[in-house]
């Protein structure tokens, strides 16, 4: 009875461990991999901190409109010759001085530089957000490409296994027919060579798949030692099921990309920031006006002497305040003002040219992506038809070979043609999916689709 209980407990333990192992091996789809990569990417984290610094710069620019307030407290012991604050004459006594003051100042006019600093900080803040978005998008796109490569080599490995299984089966039948006198040694040798070639190809494809998986894990910053199971449902779908092509012109996609592309947004904000620097440089030629004021009080006493008014009395009697306005007029600054203004103007022109160049580059990328999407869709549809025809031709040739109506070379040629067609279909289908996602990205849609 005890032995049966122990056996049941052992079985329950094994079942629980097996279920935990199955649960731990989660299947990762392409959006989960991209989200994981973005979350753990170091460049994305750096861009996030840089965007926060731009936010602090904007806070400082807004704070320049507020008054600046400072306070001062001093205490001083004098021994020997010093100035008596009551009579303003020199005395030779030991004294103690205690002073308090507070001052405030506020800028009234700075030639428009303060408001332009705020506008520049706003442009830089948007620049930081666009740089952060670019880092996220680039990480997601690189992960997408690595995922597609891993799926491709997974598919080629599966095709290589099927090809090797076909060769093993055909080699077995050829050997059987050779023993019956229906085939010769040349046919057996040819099939053995084909089987060895297919075994090598399988090993080669498995190595490429392992390399692609390593690259994907590195792009994701995924632990190398942990297993990563990919969702292979995309390989089972036909091109018609995946078709997302809509009748739209590349110019329409480009117009949408102008409003949402983070790279172009950065160039636009750099142009706007350079324009604000150009306007700020003008302020060095105009007067600046500030308003200031303050209060102060003090306490004085000779050491080892009595009869001085108490602290609160002196503090009230010595209390004073002041108020004023100041204006600074630039007269000659050793040509630095005119040089800074011309440099700012040149920087603005440079930023304008960079923006126009980036816009042209974006248009080329959009046109290429739309053209590639349409081209790979057509290729995938035609390759599906070709795979169906090559598969039929291979099976007919194999049957005729088994009947002695075809040679082994005919079988090898048809098998190689079928494998090439299947590989081409796999590549064009996966590339079409990637181009569809890229075109949607240029249209303003998120690369990572969490709702799918």
From TrEMBL:
Keyword terms: Cell outer membrane, Coiled coil, Membrane, Signal, Transmembrane, Transmembrane beta strand, Transport
Cellular compartment(s): Cell outer membrane
Stretches of the chain forming a coiled coil according to its record: 338-379
A single GO molecular function term of this UniProt record: porin activity
InterPro entries: OMP_efflux, TolC-like
GO cellular component: cell outer membrane; efflux pump complex
Transmembrane regions: none
Family: Belongs to the outer membrane factor (OMF) (TC 1.B.17) family.
Name the UniProt record assigns to this protein: TolC family protein
Organism of provenance: Phocaeicola coprocola
């Amino acid at each position: 009875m005890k032995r049966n209980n122990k056996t049941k407990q052992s079985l329950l333990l094994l079942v629980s461990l097996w279920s935990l192992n199955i649960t731990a091996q989660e299947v990762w789809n392409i959006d989960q991999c991209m989200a994981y990569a973005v979350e753990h990417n170091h460049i994305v984290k750096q861009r996030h901190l840089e965007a926060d610094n731009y936010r602090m710069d904007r806070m400082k620019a807004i704070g320049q409109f507020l008054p600046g307030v400072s306070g001062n407290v001093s205490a001083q012991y004098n021994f020997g010759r010093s100035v008596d604050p009551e009579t303003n004459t020199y005395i030779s006594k030991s004294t103690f001085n205690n002073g308090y003051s507070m001052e405030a100042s506020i800028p009234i006019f700075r030639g428009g530089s303060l408001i332009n600093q705020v506008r520049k900080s706003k442009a830089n803040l948007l620049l930081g957000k666009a740089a952060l978005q670019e880092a996220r998008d680039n990480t997601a796109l690189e992960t997408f490409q690595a995922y597609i490569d891993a799926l491709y080599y997974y598919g080629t490995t599966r095709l290589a296994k099927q090809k090797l299984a076909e060769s093993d089966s055909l080699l077995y039948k050829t050997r059987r027919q050779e023993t019956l006198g229906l085939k010769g040694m040349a046919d057996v040798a040819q099939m053995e060579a084909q089987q060895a070639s297919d075994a090598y190809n399988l090993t080669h494809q498995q190595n490429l798949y392992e390399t692609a998986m390593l690259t994907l894990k590195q792009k994701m910053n995924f632990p190398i030692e942990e297993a990563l199971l990919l969702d292979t449902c995309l390989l089972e779908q036909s091109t018609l099921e995946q078709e997302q092509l809509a009748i739209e012109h590349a110019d329409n996609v480009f117009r949408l990309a102008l409003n949402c592309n983070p790279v172009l947004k950065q160039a636009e904000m750099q142009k706007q920031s350079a324009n604000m620097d150009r306007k700020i440089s003008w302020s060095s030629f105009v007067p600046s006006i500030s308003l200031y004021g303050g209060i102060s009080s003090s306490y004085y006493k000779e050491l080892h002497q009595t009869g001085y008014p108490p602290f609160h009395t002196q503090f009230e009697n010595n209390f004073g305040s002041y108020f004023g306005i100041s204006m600074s007029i630039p007269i000659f600054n050793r040509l630095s003002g005119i040089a800074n203004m011309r440099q700012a103007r040149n920087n603005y022109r440079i930023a304008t040219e960079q923006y126009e160049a980036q816009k042209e580059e974006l248009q080329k990328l959009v046109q290429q992506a739309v053209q590639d999407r349409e081209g790979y869709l057509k290729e995938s549809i035609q390759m599906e038809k070709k795979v169906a025809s090559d598969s039929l031709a291979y099976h007919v040739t194999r049957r005729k070979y088994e009947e002695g109506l075809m040679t082994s070379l005919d079988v090898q040629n048809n098998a190689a043609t079928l494998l090439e067609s299947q590989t081409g279909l796999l590549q064009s289908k996966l590339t079409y999916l990637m181009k569809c996602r890229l075109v949607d990205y240029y249209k303003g849609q998120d690369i990572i689709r969490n709702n799918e």
